[in-house]
Structure formats: C-alpha cells, structure tokens
User: What shape does this take?
Amino acid sequence: MTEVQKKNKKLKRERKINITVYLVLRFLVILCMVDQAMKGNWHSVALCFLTLILFTLPTIVSRTFKVKLPATLEIIIYLFIFAAEILGEIQNFYGIFKHWDTMLHTLNGFLSAAIGFSLIDILNRVERFHIKMTPVFVSLVAFCFSMTIGVLWEFCEFTIDKSLDYDMQKDRIVEKISSNKLDTNNESDPITIDNINKTEIYSNNSTKVTTIEGGYLDIGLIDTMKDLMVNFIGAVVFSILGFLYIKDRDEYKFIERFIPSFKKFQEE
Assistant: This one.
C-alpha cells in the first residue's frame, strides 16, 4: 500500500468517526429536546434548538471561508458544545460537578489559542503576504487572541445576567469579605469580616427576609476571575506547543490536529 493510499484510508477513517460522533450527539440532543418539551421546560427546549444550530457552525465556517478543520478539532468542538449546553446547562453539570465549568473554560482557552495561531501561522508561511514573524511573536498573538475571546465571553455573560436576570456568572458563597464600603469613618480603609455564617437580605419591595446560610453571596466576581485564569492556562499551554511546532514541525506534527488551515491559501 502506497503512502497516498494509507493517507486516504486514514482520512476516510477519521471522517467516519467524525460523522458518527456528530450523528450520535445530534440524536442525544433531539432526545433531550423531546424530554424537556414533555416536561414543559421551554427554556431548555430553546437551548437544545440552539445546540443543533451550533453543531452546524463548523460545516458552515468550513464551506464559507474555505477552512479545513482537522477531524480531531471538529470532534472536540462538537463535544464542547454538547458539554456546555446540554450537560452543563440542562443537566446541571455545572452544579453537580464542581470543576465542570473550569474544565470547559480551560479547553476554550486552548482551542481559541489554536485558532488564533492558525490565523497568523498561515499568513506567516504564504509569500504573497510578506509577513515574517518570529515563533515567539506568533505564539504571543495566539495567546492574546485567546485571552480576548475569553474576555469577550465574560462580557457576554455579564450582559445576559444583567439584562435577562440569568446567572451565567455563577454566584458562590464566601465566608470572608473585605470592603472599604464598610468603613463608617469614611477613610476608605478596607474593613474585613471573617467567619460569616449567615446573611440576611431585606427588600423594600417585600416584607420577606431572604436568608443565605453559610456565608455571604459573591455575585459572580470569583467565577469570572477563575474563568479568565483557567483560560489563561489553556492559552499558555497551546502557545508553548505552537512555539515548539514552528521550531520543529515534524517533531510536533500532532499539533496539526488542533490547527485549522485555509484551503484558499496553500503554502507557497
């Protein structure tokens, strides 16, 4: 068997696996949609519908912008969407598994860096664009691209929470706060309250007192900073791998499994 035949056989096998994963996940989403519709959870039904639309994005992007997505990357994208929307939101994996959100944001940082890396690397290798960047600079751009995507997503979460009264920036209970708003002398010195075991909230619109047991409610700040930190880790990991890949493309050829390429701009 020639090398070309081996390559074609490998591509067919990867394509078969890709299609299988895609169809299985779509089937599971449709089952979830039917189940949520029977329960009258129309918000979850909408999320299922959104998930089905998101599943079509890799194909739309590939055909519209002449982008070739490696089979491994495409499968990871499908699994990421399923894990975030169906498992995370509808099945409440964000609440059941403590680090579910952390895992997804870390992966997002890694994948976003891969996309940013591919955008610069392909231009760096095509003579017509006259761009010659050092491996360090290409990796730095990939890192900055990933962090920008992470920040924009946090903006999105904040906007949705404030406009629709959602809780995408997950609140959490803390037992210690430090704030200069607690300084009654107006000297702007931070006052610390430790070992908080209960918080009571009084509203002008209701006589009901809301009690938060176990501490004070942090409204999304810790979650946002944690998401950006793990996005940072994912971006750094891929940026380092991208740097090594540019230095020795044969030794680190496995990185190509995560890097989109442009059919329109072949290396010259």
